[in-house]
Structure formats: C-alpha cells, structure tokens
Amino acid sequence: MDVNAAVAAAAAIAGVLTGVIAMLAFRWSERDQKRPTRTSLHTDPVLPPGVDTVLSVLRSSAVVLDEADAVVKASSAAYALGLVRGGKLSVEPMLQMARDTRRDGEIRQVELDLPRRGTGRGEALAVSARVAPLGSRLVLLLVEDLTEARRIEAVRRDFVANVSHELKTPVGALSLLSEAVMDASDDPEAVQRFAGRMQIEATRLTNLVQELIDLSRVQNDDPLEDAEPVRVDELVAEAMDRCRHQAGTKQITMASNVWAPEGPDQGGGGRRAGGTADLHVWGNRGQLAAALGNLVENAVNYSPARTRVGIAARRVNAPGGDMIELAVTDQGIGISDKDKERIFERFYRVDPARSRATGGTGLGLAIVKHVVASHGGEVTVWSAEGQGSTFTLRLPEAGAARDRAQQHPDLDDEAGPTDPPPYASLPAPEVLP
C-alpha cells in the first residue's frame, strides 16, 4: 500500500515537472520569435513612414542602405541595372559616396558609366547617381539611367553636323564655280561648262533642302489626319514615272506585277495582273508616294546598266487584319551585313563616293522608315552583296488600317528587321503580255 502511494506521488511530481518544462519551452520559443534577427533589421519597418510608398512611384532606381551598408530597400529597376547583388550595393563608387554622405550628411551627385549586364560588347550604361541622408541611420541612393538621353543627344548632334557638312559642300562648290565663271568670262565654252556644273550643284542643294523639309514634316505631322484609301497601282505607277528618265538613261528595265499605264518600258498598253489592281492602303497619299518613290529611285541609282528593277504587290494575312506588301527588287551592288544595321540612319550612305556621284543625300531611307512607321507598318530589307536588294513595305490594308494605324510605334534610328522576304529569291518580275 505504501509502495503504491509512493509510485503515485512520484508520477504526479513527474507530470508537474513535465508541464512546467513545456510551459517554459513555449515561453522561450515565443520570446525567441519576437527577438529581432539580422534579416528583420533590414526590412521595410525600419524605413520612416511613407518612404516606401514614395520610392515605389519614383522613375529613378532607388536603394536604401543602413549603417552597415546593407540594402534595406531596393526597387526592381535597381536590380535590373545590376546595382544590387546579394543584398549589397555592387557599384563601388556609389558605395563610397554613401559612406561619405553618412559621415558628413552632405548630398552628393555624380555621373558614371557602368558596364551593361548580359552583353560582351563592352557597351556602357550612362547613369546619374544622387546620394542623400534619410533619417539618422539610413542613406538614400537615387540612380537615373541617362543612356537613352545620351543616345538621342548624340543623334541630334550628328544630325546637325551632317546637315552643316552636306549644305556646305554644294554651297562651296557654287562659290568656286561662280569665281571660275567670272575668270573665264571671255571663254564661252568654259562659261557654259561651269554653268552646267553650277546647275548640278544647285539641283543637289535644292534636293537636300527639300528632303530635310520632307523629313521634318513626316516626323512632326500626323499623316492620318488627311488619310484616305490610296490605290496601290497608282502609287506604283507614280513611282515608276518618277524614275523613268534615269532608268532609260541606264537602259534599266522597270517591271511590275501591278497594273501600269502605257509606256515605253512596258512595251505599250496597260495591264492588270493577279488581282492586284484592287489593292488599297489607308494613309496620306503624298507621303506614301514619296516613300515608294524613294525606294524605286535608290534601286535605279544603285543598279548597273542593263539590269532590272521590279515592283511587286500582294495581300498577306496578319493577326490584326490584312496587310499590303510592296517589294522593290533590284540587281544592284547589294548591301553588306554591317551596313544593313545603319542604312535607315539619317545621312548614312553605303558608298559615299557613289552616293555623291548619283546625287544622293542619305535621307531617302530615313524618310521611308518614318512614313511607314507613322502609317502603322514596317519596312524590311534583304540584300546580298553582288546580288541585289529587296526592300519591302508592309502597310495595313484600307479598312482594317483605320483601327491599326492609330497606334504609332516609337521612332529611332536603328535599322529594321533583315529577314529575307518571299521576293528575295525571285528575279525582278517580267512584264506579262
């Protein structure tokens, strides 16, 4: 009896001890969970009220550092630029700026060039970094990406320099030729020769000024304000008529699968082929005619004598509605891969000497690019050196274009896609009887 009582008492004491130990363990665990950890010291609650909201709406990349240079808060743009890696600020000059600002409270700003992540071409990001104290322990770093602004400024600077150079060349030539005319006033043949050269330079100057005006107009005007259905066959006929004299001089045959009016290059008599006579695009007739005319003129100017220039049109299906493709194919000198990346830049010439011989200004393809883009389309190029080139315009067909062409893509001076079009492997189309 005494043994049983002793056992019961021992069991009761053990149960009480177990309960006490369990309660102490629970309390200890609860207190341990509430204790701040190294990670919790660098989370949002340490930021002053409202700062998190303000940082989330800033366009600049934002990074907040604590007194140990650990990242408390960083925007997604900061990670995208590669400013933050492994919870640390990875740009040493910015980190040093943050330490100096934490020490003396001075606001600092500097412009830096950072290596671009994910590229092996050595390209750099131009950024502006500004560091300021945030409260008593934190430092705020704001980084603005200036790369695009620098690029635009460089394009503008090059454009002004190129315009000045291109205007200076014919103006200088006219000045020299006028002096030559004065010195040769007693030589009628020399006067006539110099006067002919003056006419050529005056024409080149006039063309340059006109193309500058055209480029400015297509960049600033909305072509859809005066948009209308435009017949593709009329655009093709106008482009061919524009270059008929140059083509005839070089014995270049111009052919098309679109209806063309009676003319010597067509062998007499207009025609229609393949149902292309009912194709229409929606846009500004003058700008579209200028764009197609520039392509045909380039094809004629850069083609050897006794070759062909072809213009083909067709309707293609697209997810947002049918598109009209206009392809201009030549058998000229072709374009190298490195030049294809830049041919749509203003004043860029594949062969500067040949361009000046043919009177080119280097603005024709830039005008084509802006016209097509403002009409909701695109321009592509396929070319092989020594085999020729094919430039293809893709424009929304009239009807579907009213909805599609209202959305203008951003314009820049980069080249368009270079995938070979379906016309690339075909010769310039023959004229059907």
Question: Can you tell me about this structure?
Answer:
A hairpin with a 5-residue loop joins strand 1 and strand 2 (71-74). The protein is of the alpha+beta class. Residues 36-45, 260-275 and 401-433 have low confidence and may be disordered. The protein contains 13 helices and 14 strands. It starts with a helix and ends in a 29-residue tail after the last helix. It has helices at 2-34, 51-57, 76-80, 92-104, 147-183, 188-220, 232-242, 244-249, 285-301, 337-340, 352-358, 364-374, 401-404; strands at 61-65, 71-74, 84-85, 88-89, 108-115, 124-134, 138-145, 228-231, 253-256, 280-283, 308-316, 323-330, 378-384, 388-396.
Helix content: 40-55%
Give me the secondary-structure category.
alpha+beta
- Low-confidence spans: pLDDT under 50, at least 5 residues? 36-45, 260-275, 401-433
How many DSSP H or I helices? 13
Beta-strand portion reads 15-25%
Largest sheet: 5 strands, antiparallel
Strand ordering within the main sheet: 2-1-7-6-5
Element string (H = helix, E = strand): HHEEHEEHEEEHHEHHEEHEEHHHEEH
CA radius of gyration is: 36 Å
Give the end-to-end Cα distance, rounded to a whole number of Å: 129 Å
Shape: elongated
Number of beta-strand segments: 14
Averaged pLDDT: 75
